Please model this.
Amino acid sequence: MTILTGREAHCLVESMIDPKTQTQMCGMELSLQKIERFAAAGAVAFDNKERMLPRTEQVDFDESGWADLEPGAYLVTFNEIVTIPRDMAAMARPRSTLLRSGASLETALWDPGYRGRSQSLLVVHNPHGLRLKKNARLMQLVFLSLGKDAESVYTGKYQGENI
Model:
């Protein structure tokens, strides 16, 4: 397994605000489109038939494009559309400035064959909160070459999400 450089991964990410800035040494940065707060409980079971996503409420940006977040968990949607080829997977890491501001991002593995405008869990740990500006670069997506095609590709519920 090898990590692609940003130049190699550039063609896998669409709708970037500034491709030159968002292309990094070892991946691509994804930026903030939308923030939602959780307004109900979700449900997770072994069988996805019983899965239920929680209701969310959109957090508005002010006239200057800023959102003030209190400590807690939020669902964030990215601007960029990502396409994972069948011989790759991807993992994401928060930008260090986000961590140094007292917040983290949680993501799942991005499977071979996935295509969409993904979402992640933003957790504000800082007791004083966090200010985020629309289009802020939040995380770096790292693409991993599997060396061969995966035996199957992603066909789940989130295929094509938010496009």
